[in-house]
């Protein structure tokens, strides 16, 4: 039995490795030279600014938004999740609606000024997107010359478009629970992401075709990265919204999630998706000659990513530690029962066993998957 834990995003995480391994096996290229030039560094800086800015704005909304809701509902934010659920969740406490001393969830209204204070304009998110878009103005060889392709200019435009769609209008739709507006913006957001993947691919292919000795036919693997990157980021947003305090539950019912899931796959998928896109937009596919696997590529330094079994095992083992640790930690956070002597209060006295397998099965909730990933 697999258990009742959230499997979808974890399955997608490992499926990505299978897809990438299969495509890399049949690809013409056997190495990706990730150039550390102007283009890649601006893009990486944009990602960092965006990530930090997004975390700051979303964390502020989660903490201050939920606190404002509890204040309006006469709740105590120091209460345990069980106490808050019993007080405000009518599904868990049907009799609550008859208690005159408590407010109905439907009657809770956060003052507009506190809503806006909890969800300010996400400038870090916007600036990060714009920096990523500016990186398309520079060539993939790492030089500082500004000579964008038509597709690169289109990619810059898409970045500006997506940044605007996903910032102030989306904030308004989330804050005020405007379902129709949120669906329209989400559709535009997804469309923008897919478009960005396509124009990014065409931008790099055009540059490869124009470069001396460039062969756009070697970019088949890159098309997979350009498409899987955006799709993975979209999947991560779905996961993150469902796990947050003021995410999916707020939008659907108008109340905070009293049990936010810390160990969710949204963050790892978000980072992994951006990494794939970064490699695809700043890397150059090639063939590693057995006699010269580190060729001279001019003055620009680079990181070679060899498409072989060793690299695959490194990525699976290193990145795979994140979801396998989550199995046990998620179960522990959700009050999964410890096996063996741990039931008597001797936690970790039997380190080779974990929780009872309610969420992901006994094996996955043990330390052994983590040991296997480290060994890999």
From TrEMBL:
Record keywords: Membrane, Transmembrane, Transmembrane helix
Signal peptide: none
Keyword Transmembrane attributed: yes
Highest taxon of the lineage: Eukaryota
Species assigned in the record: Polarella glacialis
Transmembrane segments: 7-25, 31-50, 117-138, 150-172, 184-202, 222-241, 261-281, 301-328
UniProt KW Transmembrane helix keyword: yes
Protein name, as recorded: Uncharacterized protein
């Amino acid at each position: 039995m697999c258990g009742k834990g959230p499997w979808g995003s974890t399955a997608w995480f490992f499926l990505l490795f299978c897809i990438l391994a299969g495509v890399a096996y049949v690809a013409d290229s056997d190495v990706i030279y990730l150039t550390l030039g102007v283009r890649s560094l601006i893009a990486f800086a944009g990602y960092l600014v965006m990530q930090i800015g997004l975390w700051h704005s979303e964390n502020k909304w989660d903490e201050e938004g939920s606190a404002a809701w509890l204040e309006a509902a006469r709740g105590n934010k120091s209460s345990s999740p069980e106490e808050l659920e019993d007080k405000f969740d009518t599904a868990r406490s049907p009799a609550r609606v008859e208690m005159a001393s408590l407010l109905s969830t439907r009657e809770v209204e956060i003052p507009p000024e506190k809503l806006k204070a909890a969800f300010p304009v996400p400038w870090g998110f916007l600036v990060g997107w714009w920096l990523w878009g500016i990186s398309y103005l520079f060539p993939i060889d790492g030089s500082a010359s500004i000579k964008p392709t038509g597709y690169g200019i289109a990619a810059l435009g898409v970045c500006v478009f997506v940044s605007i769609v996903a910032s102030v209008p989306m904030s308004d739709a989330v804050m005020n629970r405007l379902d129709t507006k949120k669906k329209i913006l989400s559709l535009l957001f997804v469309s923008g992401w897919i478009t960005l993947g396509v124009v990014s691919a065409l931008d790099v292919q055009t540059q490869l075709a124009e470069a001396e000795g460039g062969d756009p036919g070697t970019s088949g693997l890159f098309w997979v990265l350009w498409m899987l990157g955006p799709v993975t980021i979209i999947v991560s947003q779905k996961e993150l919204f469902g796990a947050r305090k003021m995410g999916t539950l707020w939008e659907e019912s108008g109340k905070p999630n009293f049990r936010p899931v810390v160990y969710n796959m949204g963050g790892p998928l978000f980072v992994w998706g951006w990494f794939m896109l970064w490699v695809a937009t700043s890397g150059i596919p090639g063939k590693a000659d057995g006699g010269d696997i580190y060729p001279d590529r001019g003055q620009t330094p680079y990181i070679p990513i060899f498409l072989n079994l060793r690299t695959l095992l490194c990525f699976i083992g290193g990145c795979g530690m994140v979801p396998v640790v989550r199995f046990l930690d998620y179960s522990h956070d959700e009050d999964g029962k410890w096996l063996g002597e741990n039931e008597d209060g001797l936690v970790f006295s039997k380190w080779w066993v974990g929780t009872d397998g309610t969420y992901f099965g006994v094996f996955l909730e043990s330390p052994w998957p983590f040991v296997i990933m480290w060994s890999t």
